[in-house]
Structure formats: structure tokens, C-alpha cells
Amino acid sequence: MARHLITSALPYINGIKHLGNLVGSQLPADLYARYLRTRGNEVMFICATDEHGTPAELAAAKTGEPVAEYCARMHGVQTELARGFGLSFDHYGRSSSQRNHALTQHFAGRLADNDYIREVSEKQVYSVDDGRFLPDRYIEGTCPNCGYDKARGDQCENCTKQLDPTDLINPHSAISGSTNLEVRETKHLYLRQSALKGEISDWIDSKKDWPILTTSIARKWLNDGDGLQDRGITRDLHWGIPVKRGQQAWPGMEGKVFYVWFDAPIEYIASTAEWADAQGKADADWRRWWRKDEGAQDVTYTQFMGKDNVPFHTLGFPATIIGSGEPWKLVDYIKSFNYLTYDGGQFSTSQGRGVFMDDALEILPADYWRWWLLSHAPESGDSEFTWDNFQQSVNKDLADVLGNFVSRITKFCRSKFGEVVPEGGEYGREETALIDTLTTRIRAYEDFMQAMEVRKAAAELRGIWVLGNEYLQGAAPWSTFKTDPEKAAMQVRLGLNLIRLYAVLSAPFIPFTSDAMLAAMQTDISDWPDDVTAALQALRVGHAFIVPEVLFAKITDEQREEWEQRFKGVRA
RNA sequence: GGGCCUGUAGCUCAAUGGUUAGAGCAGGGCGCUCAUAACGCCUUGGUUGGGGGUUCGAGUCCCUCCGGGCCUACCA
Known about the structure:
By secondary structure, the protein is an alpha/beta fold. It is built from 19 helices and 19 strands. The strands form six sheets. A five-stranded parallel beta sheet has the order 3-2-1-15-16, sandwiched between helices. The structure holds one RNA strand.
């Protein structure tokens, strides 16, 4: 039994995530975790909310809540939504946890001890009226290059010129509008990534099987310009992990916190510790997933993330781990995704554009979304969500191919034999042919799942569903019943067993429906079909079942049009 | 500006440099009547964005042009 550690990129705390966020990390990670579990592996699937940084403080200020309360509340909201989508985290932690405080401070201390930290004194813009230093992008003004009056301090969106905040004409705070800005001197810690460039570069080069998207982004950062740059890992904010050197005070760093991108990946580890705490387990129980000297040497660690997260996971976090000089587990495989776009534009949390997780669950069950998103996962390039495509795909795949298959065989059985697996008849040529084809396709499905080829796995699974309809059409029990009822019984028995088989195979994609299918078949036998012939005999003669409700109601044209209108603009 | 990704049927996508570029959906025809007007079979549909080059052979490699997207280090 292999051991698999799986992490999904941490969703940021400042609001409800949209479908693009979901499909870029949490959902495919869940697919993989569920698959590996059902294949008998020991799995630790970890996620958490990412709670620090300026946007969290501003979001809290907007609602009038203290930031700690805001984060606690939003963590609760996101936890419920994760549950609603069937995300099977072993633990959904918080980057603001005490575990993460201690670990982040520990890593900083180790990095300092190993001379991978340097102090840098720099000048930053301070907004007197806001009472805070402003990140470059929170300063607005007129672009000196093109005259655009809403240029940001890091870049002008209009002419794309890169800017320094001090370049702006009439600079003002993007938060309050205040022009009462001054440049102040402040001191920060930098992680000397440049000193680790060689090691990180060699490590990336050794990953021959990683997606091009992952390695090309990493190489770009490693080799662009002067190569990998040192990175500031502290900020002048109130909300965050106080800068400490291990458990010691860090002279000169009083009142400062670690940069959110320094502590967020460490939360993968901390969240596993939170899991142990929540389960009443010992430290050794989480450390065996992370410390190669305490049991993690045989762990396979896979990370899932959108492409925007790749630099921090290929460079920053590995630099932290390598630089610590301690035997923490480095990631073995990074599965990265492009973006899902919405009707030709971008999904946007800040602009409220697109479909958000709460809206999605309000209008349709989770499995509709899981199936569409995973079968259209943006693996080779950005992919687009349109209501038309969504309606067509879901109706065809789920309602017609799978749902209707379950419906037709259970209802036929009920009308001819009752709600019980019928007796009689033996397999003939058609049945052995079906089993051969099923076996071939299930093995292909396993390969795609193992390789995290999400779309191909979905297509293969769909193909397996189709085999059921093909079989029924050829076998035609409604015909054979008239001349050879025993043969019809055998055909129906096989059909009913296919439902159970499909429930098991489909569980990683559509777990709720899978449960409903098993419930209808009144069985909890969910072993993986290593032997298809045996798997198709799980429901024995005389076993009672229930004809289930329609598994997937179709999306009507009226619904599609209504949703198209409803989600057209921006939401408040 | 620089870098990376991408462009294949009406749509969404496949195709270690190697038969005649394949699937699903949509469209057309036939069949079936168990089923959510569902299912099955057959079928139409391509100058692989344009142009050059390398090769016995290019969707695939090289050059160039055009279109789309992303990143470019203080948002996360």
C-alpha cells in the first residue's frame, strides 16, 4: 500500500471562490485523492484557507469586522462550500493557525542560521491616512507614459508599462483615495533564493515528467535576466505571523509579519499538524508524512495548482525547504492547470464576474459541476465555460448516457422480474465480449487516472458508460424475454451489476451520484474491479434493489437562458 | 519590449517524425421501443492559421508572418 500526500493550492480567504479557482486545484486534487484511496493507497489530502496579506485586511475593513473574525467567518463559509462540492480533504486548515505560526517561525530561524536570510533596508510608500504601507498596486495615479489616470504603482493597465509608484503623477491611495503619502524607510528580511539557484535548478532539471507548463514557468524565473532573485519575506502589516527567529525575538523586526507567500506553503505542513491535533493524534502521526527521517521517505507528494501559483511552488517553497537543511519532504510531482474562462473573458473574484461556488450549488447539484469542470479541465490550454456547452455536455453525458442507462435497466427489471436480481441463464458470446472490452477500457482509465490525465480519464469513463447502452441494445432483453425469459434474466442481471460497477468507477468524478447508485442497488460493495468478471457478480441472484429517482434531471433551455441572464453581469 | 503556451471538422478536444489526421457533441439517414423524446448503427464534415524550409516522410522539427492567452518578481 503506497502512501500519497496530496495538497491543493490554498484558496485565498477574501471571498467565495469561482469555478475557475475550483477546477484549477481543489477539484482535480480531490479526483486524484479519491481515486488513490479507492485503489487502496494510504492518502493524506490537505488543503487550507490562505488568510494573510493586504487583500484580507482590506476585505475585513470593508465589512467592518476585525480581520481575525472576518477570516474565521470566511473559513467557515469556504469549509461548507468545500463540503458541498464533495472535496474530500483529510483536513481543511487555516494558514493563521498556531501550528503555522510555529512552523513558519521555525523555518525562518533555520534559514537565518544557515545564512539564507539577509536584511534589506528599503523605501516604501506609506499612506498616513490609511495608517499602513501600501503595496505598489494599491497606489494609483496618472501614468507618466500614456496619461491614463488609473495607472497602478506596479504597472499601467492601459499601456502595460512597468512602473514604480514614485513615477506616478498625482499618486494616491487606492484604498482611501488619500494623497497624503510619504516615502518611508523600512527594513525587511529577504530569502536568499539566489544562493540556492543551482540546487533548485538541478532539482527542476531532474523532473523530466512534469507538465511543460510547470517546468517552463520555473525555468523562466530561474534564468530570466540576472537569474533567480532574492525575495522579501516580511511585510509591514498587522495581520500575519509575527517575525521571529524560531522562538526568539528578531531584533529590528518588531511589529512586522511574514509575507503571505512565505507562510502559505508552510501551511501545507502545518495543516497536516492541525489534522493530527483534530484527530487527537501524536506529532509523529503527521511528521511521518513530511519528515524523511521520520517515515516520509516512501511518501509520494503531489501538488495541484493553477499556473499563477507555479513560481511559488517550484522556487520559493523549495528554497525554504532546501535552505532549512532539514529533511522535509519536497514535492514529487506538480500538476498545474491553465485558466477556465467565462464566456470569452476572465472569471474574476474582485470584479464578481462568472459563476461562484455558492451560486453553483444553489442552482445544481455538485456532480453536474464536478463532471463538467473535470471533463473540460484546462490542461493543455485555457478552456472556456459557456452555458450552452455546459447544458449540452451535462445533459448528454450524465442524463442520457449514464442516468438513462440506470433508469432503463432498473425499470425493465422491475416490470418483468420485480425489484430483485433475477435468476437463470448463462453468459454467451456477447457477455464475454463485453467483459473483454470493459477490462481493456478500465485498464486504460486506470492509466489516465494514475497519470492525472483528467480529461482523458473522463472521456474513457464516459466510453465505459456507453458500453452499457451498447450491450443492452444488442442483447435486447425486452425481445429475448418473449422467447427465452432465462436469457433475458441473465442479461438484466448483468445490466444491474453494471450499475454497481459504474458507481465504483465513477465515484472519483461524481461521488454523490455514485453513492446514490450504490444505495439504489442496496449494496456497499465498492471494491475496485481488478477482475471484471468477478465484479459483475457482486449482486447475486435474489438480491433486492430499488429503482432510483432520476439521477440527473436535464437542464432545460429555460433554465439555461435564465442562468445566462442571471450570471451575465457582475455580482455584488 | 522579453519569455512561455496556444491555433487541427460548426463546437470541445485527440494524434512517441511513419498506413488514408481521429473521438465526443451538433447536422443527416436507418433501426429499436426497456428508458429521462432517451439508446444503438451508419454517415456528412479538414488546404491541421498563412507562407517558406529540413526530411524518403511534417499536425509534429526549423524560419517567418498573423491571431488568442498567460507571465514578467510588492495582489495572492
